[in-house]
Recover the amino acids of this structure.
């Protein structure tokens, strides 16, 4: 309670005061609250300032639009504060986040608005020039010239670049406007910027980006498939900008990225295209099926197994099969699906002699290990081993 008012009433009244401010103050205050409450991670002060300075549709970023901290705090009427220890800007209290979450009408289409701002920033001439200057010869650049330290120093004046590179597609996948789609197609109709690719892949699980000498090529179709944005993938295909089977710097095709990240809509879209190779491996021999099985995407696994061209037991360069990776990571549902395929050898060892059963056991996946053990003990009906065992009994 505050002077007889419920906390929600206080927040509501304060937001109304923010909206009633003169000039640009109302916009700044409401946009700051939108960003802080809907961002995928806590924003550093510089990131928020740059986000608020972007003018939708502008071809370049004007540093003159960046607000000061005192101006921003004043516009937000005490609803935001700076966490000096974490160097981030946050809402004044967790109850404000709860209030905003339960009143979605306060911000109209917040995720599409954020995606539009991120895409405008990435499309700006200053960011594109930065990418070009950083990698003047992307095909021949060496590892040491693109170390994380050198990258960080070169983008210190582009404080908003990392957030935009990593999260624009997350927001766009949640909610995409016609404007956002146009901005995305404009950005992705050519190869995605190497600096943005590097920043994006630095956050990817099981991807060791320092193993690679270059991040070229990585097309816009690869990027849209990575994020799983069906409308953008379909648009790029219609524009005939790319070969749908083209491998990136890792040899991974768009279908491989979509399968790896579990984007069923994009997988369905790509599988529906004439000429798609659903079993195309990357440079490590990992197929879309193997990547989906490794990351636990059961729906994608089922979709890929519906194609005759897909080999459900195809090993990677280390001899590890989709079943091996599903067992190693404890994905019981996928293990069951793969064991139901006659072509799958449940005892196939990798190059080190490790079987799916041993891997499941070593990683503590007891249910999966028990499943594999029982499968070995009792051959499933209709498998070749089953018929051979029945024949032996008859003899």
């Amino acid at each position: 309670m505050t002077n007889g008012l419920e906390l929600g009433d206080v927040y509501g009244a304060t937001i109304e005061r923010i909206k009633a401010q003169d000039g640009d103050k109302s916009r700044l205050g409401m946009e700051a609250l939108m960003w802080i409450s809907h961002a995928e991670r806590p924003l550093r002060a510089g990131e928020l300032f740059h986000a608020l300075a972007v003018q939708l549709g502008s071809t370049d970023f004007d540093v003159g639009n960046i607000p000061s901290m005192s101006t921003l705090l004043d516009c937000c009427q005490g609803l935001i504060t700076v966490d000096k220890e974490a160097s981030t800007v946050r809402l004044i209290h967790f109850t404000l986040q709860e209030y905003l979450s339960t009143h979605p009408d306060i911000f109209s289409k917040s995720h599409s608005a954020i995606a539009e701002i991120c895409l405008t920033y990435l499309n700006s001439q200053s960011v594109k020039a930065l990418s070009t200057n950083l990698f003047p010869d992307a095909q021949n650049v060496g590892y040491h010239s693109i170390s994380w330290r050198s990258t960080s120093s070169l983008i210190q004046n582009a404080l908003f670049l990392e957030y935009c590179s990593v999260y624009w597609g997350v927001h766009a996948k949640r909610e995409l406007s016609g404007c956002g789609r146009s901005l995305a197609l404009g950005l992705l109709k050519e190869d995605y910027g190497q600096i943005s690719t590097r920043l994006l892949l630095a956050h990817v699980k099981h991807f060791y980006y320092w193993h690679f000498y270059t991040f070229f090529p990585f097309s816009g179709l690869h990027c849209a498939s990575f994020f799983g944005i069906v409308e953008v993938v379909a648009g790029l295909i219609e524009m005939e900008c790319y070969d749908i089977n083209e491998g990136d710097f890792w040899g991974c095709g768009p279908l491989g990225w979509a399968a790896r990240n579990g984007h069923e809509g994009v997988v369905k879209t790509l599988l529906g295209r004439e000429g798609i190779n659903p079993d195309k491996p990357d440079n490590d021999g990992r197929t879309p099926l193997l990547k989906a099985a490794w990351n636990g995407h059961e729906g994608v696994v089922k979709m890929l197994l519906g194609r005759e061209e897909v080999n459900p037991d195809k090993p990677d360069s280390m001899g590890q099969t989709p079943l091996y990776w599903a067992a190693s990571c404890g994905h019981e549902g996928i293990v069951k699906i793969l064991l139901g395929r006659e072509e799958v050898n449940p005892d196939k060892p990798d190059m080190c002699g490790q079987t799916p059963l041993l891997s499941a056991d070593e990683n503590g996946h007891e249910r999966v290990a028990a499943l594999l053990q029982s499968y070995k003990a009792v051959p499933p009906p209709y498998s070749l081993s089953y018929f051979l065992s029945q024949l032996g009994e008859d003899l």
